[in-house]
Each structure stands twice: as C-alpha cells, then as structure tokens.
Amino acid sequence: MTHQPCRESGVLVINKTVGMTSHDVCAAVKRHFRVAKAGHVGTLDPLATGVLPVCVNEATKLVQFLMHQDKEYRCTMELGVTTDTHDREGAVIARCTDIPEDPALIQRTLMALRGDRWQIPPMFSALKQNGIPLYRLARSGATVQRQPRRISIKEIDVIAIEVPHVVFRVVCSAGTYVRTLCHEIGDLLGCGAHMVALERVRNGSFHIKRAVSCEELFALPRSEALSRYLIPMPAALYGMPEITVCDSVARKLQSGAPVTRGDIGDLQVPPCATGQQVKVLSRTGQLIGIVTPLPDGAQECMPAWKTIRVFASREECGSARRIYQ
C-alpha cells in the first residue's frame, strides 16, 4: 500500500549510525515518511554517531533557532598518531612513541582548554572558500588560510585512559570541531593525536536517551512512529518563553499585520531580557510565530513586538502526543 504524503510537522531525534552522512539521514526520513521537506540541526561527520535532530515539513523553519545550542560529546582519541583529517579516516602524517601515561597530566591538559578560545577549522571540512568546500580543496592537495572561529569549551573531563586511547566528555558551543580539539590536545602533550570515535550525546535539549535509529524508526507503522517520536514544534523549542494569544491576534501575526500593545494588553507576557525570543502559541497550542518583544511604549497603538518568524498553522502537528522535556 502506498502511503499518503505526511503533512505533520515536528522534530525527529535520530541516533545516527556510523557511515551515514547527515544528508543521508534527512533523505531517508524524507523518502520513508514522504514529507515535503527535511533538514538536520548540526552536521555529524560519517564517522560520528549520536543525536541528529531532523526537522520535517514546517518545522524546517526551526533550524535557525536550534542550530546554535550547545553540544555534548563522548570522544575517543588515540595519542601518538597524527592524521591530516584529525580523525582515523585520514592519512597518517606523523607518529610518536613517547606517549605520556600520567592521568593527571592528561586531565590537566584537557582542563586547560576550558573557556572561550579560538579554533582554526580543519581543511577537511564542509566550510566553503569562494563557494568550494574545503574538503574538495584538501583532496586536491591545496591548503588555504582559514579564519579562526570563536568557540567555548564549557566542560571537559577524562572518562577513561587506556594508553594510547583516551576517552573524554566535552560540552562545547556550536561550531566546535572535536576532531580538531583532539589534534590540539596531541600538540599540547607533544605526541600528536587524532579522533577515532565520536558520539554526540546531546544537541541542545535533545538527548541520546530520547533518540531512535533510522532502522528502529522505519520498522514501526508510520502512524505509531510519528506518534511516538515526532516532537511537536512548540516542545522542540524547549526553554524558550511562550505566550498564548487569542484568535484575532493570531490572525494578525500570521497575516503580517503589526500586533500592538493594545492587542496584548490583557495577556500574560513572560518577563524577557532585551532581544530575547518568545514563541507565540494559538489557543489550541499550535506554534504560530517567534517574536522579540519591543521596549515598553506609552501608546496602545505602538507595536508590541518584532516578528522573527511566522509558521503556517495548517502544517502544525496536532496529533503528535509526545512532549519532549
């Protein structure tokens, strides 16, 4: 029997397996559920496993709000071997037999990386130079100058040491290359290092404990799979302040008309810092927009907020029952 196209919207938290690209996962989800659109939040290399949120249909508009959240990884690196890609799939460019075995030294070296710092992206990455992915340039033997990125290492701790392998946990800002972090640790220890395994344990509020593999997901009847694993759009924006509006305000927001202070005077507006984003829900709990409240004004005809994004209510997944928190 041929399934009808899926018109529900939300986020599937996929537990990606080794070998698949992030694009492969989106294509598989799109094909299996016959959704119009699918987009992932945060790219995982084929070597990496773990949490890959996939937004489907109208929820693809959420990617811009989810992609900058912190990530948590469990990484295994091998000391004494340096590769050109900073992971086990690259060519070996240096070896060292003088590998430190002092756990305290290794822990101190990792701890020294905590805080805000600059990181130069690796040549073997999907970043583009003049429209060309760096990895294509690297494969042709070219090396180009890359602009350092400001990253933040929030937490980093050694989990296990079995020389030459070290397993560690790291919580970092979006845009951090963990395989390059391994390369930097190897430089600091004086022996070189590369990444041999990587699991993303958490991507923002999406945790591996709630993730499902494509194999498990696709084995279920489609309605059950979506009911069990499709996170509704409002719940996917976990932690973002929210406001529920009446039908007339909802229509104004979705039509592009300015929402004034008089329109929302009787509503419970959450306290927000300047520039903070707020999700706007309809009376039925559907996500209809994301806005930024404007400074208080004396006149009721003044705009109440700046609209960042509007969502089509007919695409909202009203049947998904699983609330993610």
- What's the architecture of the largest domain, going by CATH? 2-Layer Sandwich
Distance between the termini: 35 Å
Outline the low-pLDDT stretches. Answer: 315-325
Specify Rg, calculated over alpha carbons: 23 Å
What number of structural domains do the residues give? Answer: 3
Amount of beta strand: 25-35%
Question: Which whole number gives the mean pLDDT?
Answer: 88
At the first level of CATH, what is the class of the largest domain? Answer: Alpha Beta
**Number of DSSP strands?**
17
Count of alpha and pi helical runs = 9
Helix content: 10-25%
Task: Enter the CATH topology name of the largest domain.
Answer: Pseudouridine synthase
- H/E element sequence: EHEEHEEEHEEEHEEHEEHHHEHEEE
Query: Which of globular, elongated, flat, extended, rod-shaped describes the shape?
Result: globular
At the fourth CATH level, what is the homologous superfamily of the largest domain? Pseudouridine synthase
User: Largest sheet, if any?
Assistant: 9 strands, mixed
Coarse structural class: alpha+beta
Q: What do you see in this structure?
A:
This protein has 325 residues and is of the alpha+beta class. It contains nine helices and 17 strands. The protein folds into three domains: 85 residues, Pseudouridine synthase (2-Layer Sandwich); 133 residues, Pseudouridine synthase, CATH 3.30.2350; 74 residues, Archaeosine Trna-guanine Transglycosylase, Chain: A, domain 4 (Roll). The strands form four sheets. Strands 1, 2, 3, 4, 7, 10, 11, 12 and 13 form a nine-stranded mixed β-sheet that branches. It is globular, with a radius of gyration of 23 Å. Helices cover 22% and strands 30% of the residues. The C terminus is likely disordered.
